[in-house]
Design a protein that fits this description.
Blueprint (H helix, E strand, L loop, with lengths): L1 H53 L6 E5 L2 E5 L1 H56 L1
Antiparallel strand pairs: 1-2
Helix pairs in contact: 1-2
């Protein structure tokens, strides 16, 4: 009777660990989605910076603010785009660190699940012999 209670406890533990693993996998997928968005924004901003670098110093640059195009200084536009690129790059580094941490947690959860499954199998094998 004691092994049945231990088996049920192990199965509950396994279920909890599986739920935790599912949550980690969802967090990893969300991280990938956000990272993809930032990568696209980074590419767009780098393209804008290249375009700005091609302009003459006296060229007219306009910024879209709501439905209105507002004239902007070329140096100011350059600085704004560079700041945006720096911010996006920092966010990508932060997301990479978070992703690495999540993947490490996922791997340790998988190992823990595997160990619990082995204990359940050994209990069931011992029960079958009795």
């Amino acid at each position: 009777m004691g092994s049945t209670a231990a088996l049920k406890e192990l199965q509950r533990d396994l279920e909890n660990k599986a739920n935790d693993l599912t949550k980690l996998q969802k967090d990893i997928a969300k991280n990938h989605q956000v990272r993809k968005k930032y990568t696209i924004q980074l590419g767009e901003n780098e393209l804008v910076l290249k375009e700005l670098d091609l302009l003459n110093d006296d060229a007219n640059v306009y910024k879209l603010i709501g439905p209105v195009l507002v004239k902007q200084d070329l140096a100011e536009a350059n600085a704004n785009v560079r700041k945006r690129i720096d911010y996006i790059s920092a966010e990508l580094k932060r997301l990479d660190a978070t992703l690495q941490d999540l993947e490490e947690k996922q791997n340790s959860k998988k190992e823990a699940i595997y160990k619990v499954q082995q204990r359940i199998q050994s209990l069931q094998a011992g029960k079958g012999k009795a």
